[in-house]
Amino acid sequence: MRTVIFVGSRDHQGRTGRAVAALDAGLREGGAEVEQVWLLERHLRMSVKRNPDGFGQCLEQGVCKLDDEFGALVEKLRAADLVVFATPVYWGEMSEILRAFIDRLRRICLHEEGKRGIAGKQAVAVCVAGGGGGGAPNSVNLMQRVLSHCELDGLDVIPARRQNLDLKLDVLRLTGRWLAGHVAPHRA
Known about the structure:
Blueprint: E1 2-7, H1 15-29, E2 33-38, H2 57-61, H3 70-79, E3 82-89, H4 96-108, H5 112-115, E4 122-129, H6 136-149, E5 153-161, H7 165-182
Parallel strand pairs: 1-2, 1-3, 3-4, 4-5
Helix pairs in contact: 1-7
């Protein structure tokens, strides 16, 4: 099973990085192939208004014409059997870089061609809150809406907080093992 994890954090050793490492370890223990894509290490731009209604080729053709790595990352998503979105929680929201990627993904998914290989694909989100941890529930709700909007098959959205991270690392490792054995290969 091929898995791609889109990470909206900069810190490989931070809380979100540790959560990603635990899920990755479980997936690999279960026999999955895993690729981590750290979005801040990629050349990604924010969506821009292309015509008066705010859309351009994303709505008309299901592709984004900005000159960056977005198209290549979408192809990685399409080629995977499982997609994971992992983000630190900032003020109850996903990170800015994951938001930029997701906003563009949602736009292309408005067109049937853009949804090709995305709609119906199984997905998981991991939201890791620091501070008091109170933003985790809002972030989970936001990720549920994103998965639904892109017509991804949301298997789970896993919240974690600074206060329960050690427990959640074990949960994420077990979840990875379970996913590796239960996610069917996606057919485009």
